[in-house]
Specification:
Layout: H1 9-32, H2 36-65
């Protein structure tokens, strides 16, 4: 299995927390944005980070079930 990295649950949980934090910061930036383009940018970025956090949560759930 060359090139495959296996993360432990602790590492995955750390990623969840990192991306949740980034999503939260982007949401705050969106609320403070001075113009619509900047607001939209941060809203999209927040959604992206939120989606990454959700994906990592799903991986953790699958590992806990297995």
């Amino acid at each position: 299995m060359r090139g495959v990295v296996v993360m432990g649950v602790g590492e995955l949980q750390s990623k969840v927390e990192k991306y949740e934090s980034r999503a939260s910061k982007c949401e705050a930036q969106a609320r403070e944005a001075k113009d619509k383009a900047q607001q939209t940018f941060y809203e999209v970025l927040a959604a992206y980070y939120g989606s990454l956090a959700t994906d990592f949560r799903k991986v953790i759930e699958k590992r806990n079930v297995a």
